[in-house]
């Protein structure tokens, strides 16, 4: 695994990741590296390949080609060790609806092998971090979409991972819930490396230092959020880069 900037550790790395389903190309030759302590937005339109790439990084599906690394660990060759270093929040992540958040966190903590004392300490921490105190013992199925997202985030944070990978974390939330979630992301970014998949431009502008732009399964931009703006906005760049002609041209550089 590469080291960037001397002492700066690379926490997420993709090397030539590709995924094919027969003749269909989901993602092709995706390569990037993310150093410790950076918040990165994985941006692109619906169907661009963001979720597939997230699943490849998290080891949920195997690549057709290429390799993914988390904190120096090959995700597919050393899946268990790598999973200890990251928390994954998929879009519409599966939660046991009949469990309470407290029961769910204890279940996942025991599955991860946390000691009884460590588990109770971590539950107390994520309870405070995710503001679950009032719903900790209510059935998850009775909670709002925003609170379910907070339960999912608490589960992803439970083992205190170095890396957070989140797929469309604010999808379906109301404006107040989105604002609260973005505040959480900025705070977490002070201590962790965060990769957020989204197609929402305001999300990128609000939390991300850097953008990885994917379209038609290919990475077409990798750089600072500010450098992607045109006339102070991300909208023009988004529309330009997702037109078929311009995205093919952009694929030749800037990634």
Short description:
The protein is of the alpha/beta class. The protein has two domains: 1-85 and 162-229, Rossmann fold (3-Layer(aba) Sandwich), CATH 3.40.50.300; 95-160, no CATH class.
Q: Could you walk me through the main structural features you see in this protein, from its secondary elements to its overall organization?
A:
The protein is 36% helix and 25% strand. The protein is α/β, with parallel strands linked by helices. The chain has 2 domains: 153 residues, P-loop containing nucleotide triphosphate hydrolases (Rossmann fold), CATH 3.40.50.300; 66 residues, no CATH class. The strands form 2 sheets. Strands 6-7-8-3-9-10 form a 6-stranded mixed beta sheet, sandwiched between helices. It has a 4-stranded antiparallel beta sheet with strand order 2-1-4-5.
> Per DSSP, what share of the residues sits in E-state strands of 2 or more residues?
25-35%
Briefly note the CATH topology name of the largest domain.
Rossmann fold
Task: Tell me the series of helices and strands, N- to C-terminal.
Answer: EEEHEEHEHHHEHEHEEHHH
**CATH level 4 superfamily of the largest domain:** P-loop containing nucleotide triphosphate hydrolases
What top-tier CATH class of the largest domain fits best?
A: Alpha Beta
